[in-house]
Amino acid sequence: MDFIGANILSVSQFERVDIDRIFEVADAMGPYARREKVTRVLEGAILGNMFLEPSTRTRLSFGAAFNLLGGTVRETVGISASAMAKGESLYDTARVLSGYSDVICMRHPQEGSVAEFAAASRVPVVNGGDGANEHPTQALLDLYTIRKELEGHGRSLDDFRIAMIGDLKHGRTVHSLCKLLCLFGKVQVALVSPPELAMPEEIVERLRKAGHQVTANDQLESAIAHVDIVYSTRIQEERFASQEDADRYRGRFRLNRDIFTRHAEPNTVIMHPLPRDSRAEANELDIDLNEHPSLAIFRQTDNGLLVRMALFALLLGVEDKVDHYSHAVRWHSRRNPV
Length: 338
Ligand code: NCD
Description:
single chain, four-stranded parallel sheet, about 35% helix, alpha/beta, about 350 residues
């Protein structure tokens, strides 16, 4: 694909070469993300960050990625803080905000809303999550993490086993990740959810058409027994008709050190898009795994910075100029590896 000026709305727009290119550029962002070097390549550029649903890491890492490339970030957080609370349409908001920005990242509770916004925008729009539909940049960073974690396990993106656990019906990260996996060969996918929260049939079909072996059940222990990656997710309570409805599923699948040690192979990698719900009634990923070397959740969030930097560099056509506008950092900060 031609990245310059493109909207990033769905992972379906990527071909395998595009993924390879994004990852290649992401690999080169390490010194900047680790604060060993500073680049001003996006000096003068403005990111309009428009987050109309709760977010910590997606919003902040989009912002930090843009800052690390030398650009400036303008934030709108929550519908109540925007003129949408006064009835302004997506169309008008897009026309206005795109006059103030060079690229826009947007999260919105409704499926398809970011695409509608992008159609009216005069600058590229990146989907930071539209309802239960898609979360393309999360899937890219998840895939990038899987690739890195598999290195040294004798596995690759074309030959590995993954179990996805939790609310697979409403989870946009797993929707995007499954679609992205269709670009690769020979993936064994175990889908673990209550039947009512199963992965949409259309996505399961896509995985099968891509030649992947897919199983679906509601047994956590057996599903994690022979996989390279365990990808746990939160019950997406904000997508349920009522809190009572959501509460029926909270705490249904709990992974802790004991269950992991007893059932999973020792070097199985544990991932989660975060936030994990650490309230006692939910606790899908126990804090007793925090020091476990298999826990990759904070390596995921660090990788998010690299992948989002790569995407911005590609969309704004500066991926080959990053080093040219760089110098060594002049300050010292203590940064321990995760
Ligand atoms: C996810 C999301 O917003 O879809 N979070 C994220 O962006 N990392 C997952 C979730 O909220 O459960």
